[in-house]
Amino acid sequence: xxxxxxxxLPGLLLTAEPVALASATSPKVIDGKIASLWSPKETTxxxxxxxxxxxxxxGLHLYSGSQGAGLVDGLTVEFxxxxxxxxxxxxxxxxxxxxxxxxxxxxTVEVLTDRLRLTLMAVPGGVLRVREVxxxxxxxxxxxxxxxAQPPVILLNQSGFGLGRPKRFTAPTLADGTPxxxxxxxxxxxxxxxxxxxxxGDFSALDTPGEYVVEAGGQASVPFGIxxxxxxxxxxxxxxxxxxxxxxxxxxxxxxxxxxxGWRDDHHFGWELHALVPQLLANPAVxxxxxxxxTYVPPxxxxxxxxxxxxxxxxxxxxxxxxxxxxxxxxxxxTHEHMKAQLAYFLYAWPVLARWLPEQxxxxxxxxxxxxxxxxxxxxxxxxxxxxxxxxxALKTRLGTTKGELPPGANVxxxxxxxxxxxxxxxxxxxxxxxxxxxxxxxxxANLDWNDPQVTKGQxxxxxxxxxxxxxxxxxxxxxAPAGLRAYIAAWAGVVVxxxxxxxxxxxxxxxxxxxxxxxxxxxxxEVGNVTGLPAAIFAALPAIxxxxxxxxxxVIAHAHLDxxxxxxxxxxxxxxxxxxxxxxxxxGWYSRHAGGIGQLGLCRFVLDGSPKNSLYPYQPEVxxxxxxxxxxxxxxxxxxxxxxxxxxxxxxxxxxxxxxVTVRLKAPVGFDPKVREEATVTLRRGTDVETLVLQEExxxxxxxxxxxxxxxxxxxxxxxxxxxVGAITAQYGFGWMATTAVSP
Length: 745
Prior knowledge:
The protein has helices spanning 230-245, 272-282, 284-289, 317-332, 337-348, 350-353, 359-372, 412-425, 430-447, 463-476, 485-499, 528-541, 548-565, 579-582, 633-650; strands at 21-24, 44-56, 59-64, 72-81, 84-93, 100-104, 112-122, 130-136, 160-162, 168-170, 179-184, 192-195, 200-202, 210-216, 219-220, 224-227, 652-658, 661-667, 679-686, 689-697, 704-710, 729-733, 740-744. It is of the alpha+beta class. The protein has 4 domains: 21-136, Galactose-binding domain-like (Jelly Rolls, Sandwich), CATH 2.60.120.260; 160-227, Sandwich (Immunoglobulin-like), CATH 2.60.40; 230-648, Alpha/alpha barrel (Glycosyltransferase); 651-744, Immunoglobulin-like (Sandwich), CATH 2.60.40. The strands form 5 sheets. The protein has a 7-stranded antiparallel β-sheet with strand order 17-18-21-20-19-22-23. Helix 1 (230-245) packs antiparallel against helix 15, helix 4 crosses helix 5 and helix 8 (412-425) runs antiparallel to helix 9 (430-447). It is globular, with a radius of gyration of 26 Å.
């Protein structure tokens, strides 16, 4: 059937340069009405759409599902050229859970056509319910996910919440005292009830897996899920995908980019290994089981990379990314203090990396780092550089700007790591690094006031560097840490708590009316990294916080900032423009993305494009998409770091002696598939005996994994699968300062 439609469909054509649809195999899917419905009988259906005339297309919206059923689970899109159907590489979607699915066509192929063919697959065991298809030209995606739809006024994490974690929402238009209910998405009686206080609602006690909506004052939230390790499950792979795609010279854009080294548009303060190494060390079981996408590419120019021998082909992608970051630094001889500081993370993680990387890697990186660590001059001029001295052992007294290029104490953690590497490898100068870290922390305690926004949130996307360093020094070397460091960290926490007393549980810039850094204009700054990195800073600070109420409040604030990234904010949108089809459960992505830019990052997966500017707070959504929007490496590194620290924070190990065996239990964000009993490996030590033990989930949907290791009658032999009988038993999951440990007599 062919149905001729008007050249302009009211409500259908969403952009300045719309595409007029002439016909479709099912007219209801192009009638401009989101409420209409086409429900084919097949679980896989083909939908063909004909345009009024040939045009270059930039993407499409697909609306599916009705009353919680009938979502399109998988989608492929082809276009016709010269009578032949050709695939669109970026338009292949699997595991979709969004009712409003935005699919952008990337630059790998020019989609010039007058016909599209969509192959639609239902959720296994389900049916298809397709409501509307809308097509647009290249450029920005439509400002909203649906013509008549804006984010609801009950705002929360659009995707979902983990078990045992804070679950809060903001209702900025509803009065205090308004009752709310949480109901199953599919309908039925309320499972939780409460009352809105301070324009917030709390349903943290609800820990039954499922899909739900919040209802209050005649309003309803978007549907969301509750389940084990929810946030880790929906973002871990994506967080690694971004760094795969955004590499300089490789990834999704192979042309040179100015001011870029390992990753496009990273300048000298991308902090990549600062983030990727903790992610590996905190949760190695997940990293190892993820699919492999990367293969080693020999350099076309040996001056770019190649000083390090290639990793093993079977190495996890995260390991290959860490290898890549170190390789570029030593090959290009980048001696900016922040660039060479990244090598400390590589060397620290060597006992883990050695499984997949040649020994030559360690030797080359160690030689370069030790030789250049105290060099005061950089090898070249770097964009936005404000470092007066590149000697990492020197005292750093200069404060960076809101650009985030020189956060306080950036040399603390790299020096702590170098000290530990030196102790492990017997370097004569090992203590020199620790002395420098302690001196830097002491200067900060004496001179930097946490009440000054420029010391904290004013560093924009780099503040997490400050507190992760201080927290590491405090926990690893309490006897060497400067006097007053615990109180200093507690004072930082007090400022965070005070400035987060608002309807979003959101840490404001100051104690007055400024919510986010503003710069010279009210449209500045795009502060994505401030939001995504604060949880890492909070979890790094918690070991120094003794007050139970403060600890509990900080945990709520940390999760509120993760939720802020996922839509609990005045815009009601996830920070990623393409989040609606990249992340399970997200309905509303960021308004737009930046096409082009130095880094061409809009072509990457899991780009964090923008966040609400100051003018949208406390709740002025009508201000809309003001100011600059553009993804940046420096926005994703804080996210990865926060996810690493969240994994460490939530992991637990238990040891129990049972006769001639020891039972080991691990709670960690490992089990993402409720149908599979997943595994993790822990290391056990007793005296000189070292053994590894594979734990398995107690049930397919349990957060706990369990294993049993026999105990020997006397001293054990390392590697024989029986733990010796001399000394205390120590269990460890992960490695180093990011590890989870337990000790039993």
